[in-house]
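Attaching the record inline, Q. Sequence:
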Amino acid sequence: MYGVSLKESVDVNSGEVKVDTAGVILRSAAIGSCVVVAAYNLRKKTGAIAHIMLPGRAPQQSLEKTKYAFDAIEQMLNRMFEAGAGMNDIEVCLVGAGNVLQKEDDTICQDNIKSVSTILAEKNIPIRASVLGGTKRKSVFLDVKNGSISYTEGDEKEKTLWQAG
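Structure, as predicted:
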């Protein structure tokens, strides 16, 4: 659907956080063990994606803090607040945490899921839908104008995950 869209697409790569209020599509592709938090505020029509690579907080000396769950979620929320969103107006979906390398001793996927889920629960931010785990790479698309979040797994067709409102 979005591959032929006339709307502008904004890529959110690993370790990045992007927020937009325009009629764009925020997208993250080639998601493996990372967890992508796609957040939306219907009232202000504000969307955000945090593409989280690692659980917990960034070390103090880290120059790339938004690779870490706590720091990425904090930055995403702060930027949404700056755009007028209130804490009670933000809803999220989670996509990712796939063991795409199919390592038997992999723990990063579960560590990322637990870290992100715990942080969101502590902030009382509801997770409306999620596609987590498995072994296929994923992509996620957030249409900021209409508040729809869709995803792909592997080479499968795009599916709607959640629709605001």
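The helical segments are 69-82, 108-122. The two ends are 21 Å apart (CA to CA).

More tomorrow.
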